[in-house]
Amino acid sequence: MPSAIEQIVDAYVRLKNRRGLDELMMHRQRLAIDLKSRSGGYDLSLPIDKIDEEIAIIEQGLSRLKAQSTDSSTTPRT
Q1: Better pLDDT: 78 or 61
Q2: Residue 18 CB contacts under 8 Å (≥ 6 apart), including other chains
Q3: Phi/psi class of residue 38: alpha, beta or left (left: φ > 0; alpha: ψ in -120 to 50)?
Q4: d(CA 49, CA 44)
Q5: Tell me: the pLDDT tens digits for 45-55?
Q6: Do the Cβ atoms of 32 and 40 come closer than 8 Å?
Q7: What is the reported pTM?
Q8: Could you write out the DSSP letters of every residue in 6-75?
Q9: Are 6 and 57 in contact (CB under 8 A)?
Q10: Which of 24, 31, 65, 63 is nearest to 50 (CA)?
Q11: What are the CA-CA distances from residue 15 to residues 7, 10, 27, 47, 76 (Å)?
Q12: Using CB atoms within 10 A of its CB, is residue 35 exposed (0-12), middle (13-18) or buried (19+)?
């Protein structure tokens, strides 16, 4: 079963919502920066790994969206 982030990214790709994917990416990147900059007695490696995994999923979605737009622009219209 796909994770929540995979379902969200798939929906954005189906809807061709580049802006939504970009905003999702920026949010996750800000979270990653914030978590990585924290110091203290807490082990944040698990949430950092999860955010990095989600960023990779969003990047895949952006690549799929780009491929779709390239395919549709090179397909001849009849």
Answers
A1: 61
A2: 12, 62, 65
A3: beta
A4: 9
A5: 999 999 999 99
A6: no
A7: 0.85
A8: HHHHHHHHHTT-HHHHHHHHHHHHHHHHHHHH--SS---HHHHHHHHHHHHHHHHHHHHHHHHHHHHHHS
A9: yes
A10: 31
A11: 12, 9, 20, 29, 22
A12: middle
d(C-alpha 50, C-alpha 55), whole Å: 9
Higher pLDDT, 72 or 77: 72
Q: What average pLDDT does range 42-63 have in this prediction? A: 96
**Residues 40-62, mean pLDDT to the nearest whole number:** 95
Q: Alpha-carbon distance 61 to 10, whole Å?
A: 7
Structure tokens at 10: 């798939």
How is the chain split into domains, by residue range?
26-66
